[in-house]
Design brief:
Structural class: alpha/beta
Helix content: 40-55%
Strand order of the largest sheet: 8-7-6-9-12-17-18
Number of strands: 18
Shape: globular
Largest sheet: 7 strands, mixed
Radius of gyration: 20 Å
Number of helices: 13
Bound molecules: 5-S-methyl-1-O-phosphono-5-thio-D-ribulose
Distance between the termini: 30 Å
Length: about 375
């Protein structure tokens, strides 16, 4: 992704070849700041405090966390301890466990002396593969957008609604939900994106709007409750969202509020697509509502809002009546029956077990 004319991934090795650079996502949209991670503890902090977030990027960051841990101690206990500490950071996105399992499976059987070098090469590979996967998702999703564009009046835009940030900032590059949008835009298909602001952390308003702007994609930020109204008035041609964990039966867990968009889309006959890499499919689960752990975050995120004041200073203010209780479930589950299709690196699948297993037989055998 180009940021101010320079090409960036969201995570990369520093010039010294061992420290890890990330972009501090808690500073958006006010500042573009790079953080240098040198230790496992800093990596745990970065994921927990959401300096990095989004399922695929959480997985990639955790892989580098193992690399940094191996610089201090390559013993079995250090490896297992680092993996456990990283796994505890966020409960819902399965890419975290997926990446850590890959690292453990590769590192545990080998000589501890070789572990650090192998860890770096595997973490680099996870990042490179994330990019290739997202490009494939982009090509598959762009076909859907192109088909809808053909049904519209010449020159009018395909209107896509998205929720949260399943964009460049949630992955190593391209994004999942945004990859088809970027590819359509780049190939001259006119697109316009309705960006849900995504309370309480405002990933839509702060992150998705920022990156669509960097890429020059026309977009409009809306409050989370506007989507249903826009769908009723035929202002939305399709919905594309990402996911933090999707079961082998096609139930989709994503940022809180996604389910309500899927319900509205069903009622209005608007196609509802989920873009995801296979690393986000949890092949061990069948029932999303019962089995996916939903992160409950601090109520402070609901009580307070941060923004730039008229004088330019960044301020946090309270917006909830004093003394009121707040709740903050961060994700919800959209049942497979509400999902039109899963846009994956191996094509657009139906949201059901047979379609998923047929596309990814290798992942079922070795989750
Ligand atoms: O809490 P977050 O910001 O990590 O939640 C991110 C999302 O819900 C994304 O939509 C999801 O991870 C898909 S990212 C490609």
């Amino acid at each position: 992704m180009l940021v101010n004319g320079e090409k960036y991934r969201t995570i990369w090795l520093a010039e010294d070849g061992w420290a890890v650079h990330i972009i501090d996502q808690t500073r958006f949209p006010y500042a573009f700041e790079i953080i240098r991670l040198e230790t496992l503890q800093q990596t745990v902090h970065a994921i927990r405090e959401m300096q990095v977030r989004g399922a695929p990027l959480i997985g990639a960051t955790a892989a580098y966390g193992i690399c940094l841990a191996m610089r201090d101690d390559t013993s079995d206990s250090a490896l297992m301890g680092a993996s456990a500490a990283l796994l505890e950071t966020r409960p819902t996105a399965v890419n975290l466990k997926w990446a850590l399992d890959l690292m453990l499976k590769a590192l545990l059987p080998i000589d501890p002396e070789q572990r650090m070098a192998r860890a770096y090469s595997l973490a680099n590979q996870i990042c490179d593969e994330d990019i290739a996967t997202n490009m494939a998702i982009g090509l598959n999703g762009a076909e859907i957008i192109a088909n809808i564009a053909r049904t519209k009046k010449p020159g009018s835009s395909v209107n896509i609604l998205t929720h949260c940030n399943a964009g460049w900032l949630a992955t190593v590059d391209w994004g999942t939900a945004t990859a088809p949008i970027y590819m359509s835009h780049d190939s001259g298909v006119p697109v316009h994106v309705w960006v849900d602001e995504t309370r309480p952390r405002n990933q839509g308003a702060f992150l998705t709007a920022w990156e669509l702007g960097q890429h020059g994609v026309p977009h409009t930020v809306i409050v989370d409750n506007a989507g249903g109204h826009l769908m009723q008035h035929e202002e939305v041609d399709l919905v594309i969202v990402g996911t933090d964990r999707t079961t082998s039966s096609g139930d989709v867990c994503n940022k809180i509020g996604t389910y309500l968009k899927a319900l509205a889309a069903k009622d209005c006959g608007v196609p509802f697509y989920v873009a995801l890499p296979s690393s986000t499919i949890d092949f061990t689960l069948q029932d999303g509502l019962k089995e996916i752990p939903i992160e409950e975050r601090s109520g402070d995120e609901v009580k307070r809002i941060t923004g730039r004041s008229k004088t330019g200073s960044i301020e946090t203010i309270e917006i909830v009546a004093q003394g009121s209780h707040v709740a903050n479930p961060a994700f919800d589950v959209t049942p497979a029956r509400l999902v039109t299709g899963l846009i994956t690196e191996r094509g657009v699948l139906e949201a059901n077990r047979q379609s998923i297993i047929t596309a990814f037989p290798d992942r079922v055998a070795a989750p």
